[in-house]
Amino acid sequence: MILDNMKVVGKPLMPWRRVSLLLVFLMAVIMLLARALDMQILHSEFFQRQGDARQLRVVSIPAHRGQIVDRNGEPFAVSTPVNSIWLNPGEMTASMQRVPELAKVLSMDAPSLKKKIQAQQGREFMYLKRRVSPELAEKVMNLGIPGIALQDEYRRYYPTGEVAAHVIGFSNVDDNGQEGIELAFNDWLKGESGSKRVIRDRLGRAFDDVEHLRSVEPGKPVVLSLDRRLQYLTYRTLKAAVIKHNAIAGSAVVLDAKTGEVLAMVSQPSFNVNDRSQLTPEATRNRSVTDVFEPGSTMKPLSMAAALESGIWNATTKIETAPGYMKVQGNMIRDTRNYGDLDVSGVITKSSNVGMSKIVLAIDADEQWGMYQKLGLGASSGSGFPGEAVGRLSTSALNSDFARATMAFGYGVSVTPLQLARAYTALAADGVLRPVSFLYQQNEVEGVRIMRAKTAQAVRKMMQTVVSAKGTGSRARVANYSVAGKTGTVHKFIAGGYAEERYLSIFAGIIPADAPELVMVVMIDEPRNGEHFGGQVAAPVFSQVMEGAMRLLDIAPDRVEDKQWVMKPEMKLQQASSKGGPA
């Protein structure tokens, strides 16, 4: 009975149930084997790539941009290593609630950042912030948010700030040159980035290098012709003059008279190139190469060179300038006063418009215009500086005596400060004109002879009288050195004609005059504190800069002047003792 009951209670399962259960287990085993076969054999490469993609990354190895240094190796532009913060938007999906926390650290707007991340969900890379400080990078990584990582980059730094900003220029966030030397030599400076494959952890941090794919080729350095000491001296002096005379702008260029190298170039107002908020088109314009102006009486030495080359005139030929004005083709040409009879040299000394007009109108028009053309007016200086203006030298002046006369004293022709300085190097180099260079020249630079040596020397001798006590540029004198120069005061050209009370004050000079080493052009735009003549405003800038330049460049004096020696007290006592009386 009991056995019968046990059989009833423990009655075995029906055969079809057993079979069904076995089939389920069998199908599960088959599916697992099939999946294993698919992953391990049939599609092993695909799944290997997917696994690697979640750990292995190909990252760029940035190439640092080449240094820009002055002729003595002092830096104008260097690249320093920094980090940029990026994220994988797809991996950030599960951590969107932490966006406000991230935004706060980065000083960003949380809703905007969240919207930006959501818009990039289909991508694996998105910059959060470029070129941040090490402290900020550490703060962000300490948040431990998945998908955020750092990328090594370089940031451009300019040690001289605004002192050389207009010449050096700057690069953008992607390290591409945008202005100045940075733009002109971008391909040379930029270099080629490398790449490598790395393993990243779940937070996106690289912790192991797998292999290097491409080697880094760092940018090559550029050695400029500029002298950083002279650049600073020129910057400081020009800025002080612009402030003193309440001018709206100014520019100054210093060239090596023997090579055509740019030793200093400054524009005012300037800007701090390390502060990107100051990078406006108006602020970043290098006025020394992009702005053109009528050179006024600084054109007279160039016109005089054409006259002397013609053979008609020499330094002692007499010119009648009375009564201080003359008519040419119905137009009046005036001097500031009646200078009476002058010799040719006196025309330069007194800056006589009447005398200069008579001189050039006596020579052939082609000789006058041809000299201007050979001096490089109306053409590129050959510097290669981005955005360089070529000025204006119109052939229409050949057909008009009045246009020829006014061009002779600097109206109807336009130049840049760099062009004018280059033209003066021909006078300084005994008639040889060389291309302008912003690069350091180790070897002798070939030039083209455009006038006889004695012509250039004669003009320089005339220009020395300008800087004498009886000339218009006496404030350009430099103690113990001979100086040849020319002042210029120009009415500003505006729509409809020339402004009566707005001026450009200009000075162009050569030092030492007897054995030239440097050429400098100074232009002050619209001085508004009473003084406006070139001899009052621009000439002192030349004097101050050249006084320092002679010392910095160790150029020996050629005109040692008598000095009033001041005795020290002990010397006076010794002298008194020797004479037997009180000091």
List the helices and strands and how they pair.
Elements: H1 2-9, H2 15-42, H3 44-53, E1 56-61, E2 68-69, E3 75-87, H4 99-106, H5 110-119, E4 126-132, H6 134-142, E5 148-157, H7 165-168, E6 170-171, E7 177-179, H8 180-184, H9 186-190, E8 194-200, E9 206-214, E10 222-223, H10 228-244, E11 249-256, E12 262-268, H11 281-284, H12 287-290, H13 300-310, E13 318-320, E14 325-328, E15 331-334, E16 341-343, H14 344-350, H15 353-361, H16 365-374, H17 401-408, H18 417-428, E17 432-433, E18 448-449, H19 453-466, E19 484-494, E20 497-511, E21 518-525, H20 534-537, H21 539-552, H22 569-579
Parallel strand pairs: 2-10
Antiparallel strand pairs: 1-8, 2-3, 3-4, 3-5, 6-7, 8-9, 11-12, 11-21, 13-16, 14-15, 17-18, 19-20, 20-21
Describe this protein's structure.
It is elongated and about 140 Å long. Strands 2, 3, 4, 5 and 10 form a 5-stranded mixed sheet that branches. By secondary structure, the chain is α+β, with helices and mostly antiparallel strands. The model is unreliable at 1-9 and 562-583 (pLDDT under 50). It is built from 22 helices and 21 strands.
Key features of this structure:
583 residues, alpha+beta, Penicillin-binding protein 2a (Domain 2), Beta-lactamase, 2 domains, five-stranded mixed sheet, five-stranded antiparallel sheet, 22 helices, 21 strands, elongated, disordered N terminus, disordered C terminus
| CATH class label of the largest domain | Alpha Beta
Number of DSSP E strands? 21
CATH-derived topology of the largest domain: Beta-lactamase
Structural class: alpha+beta
Average pLDDT taken over every residue: 86
Annotated CATH homologous superfamily of the largest domain: DD-peptidase/beta-lactamase superfamily
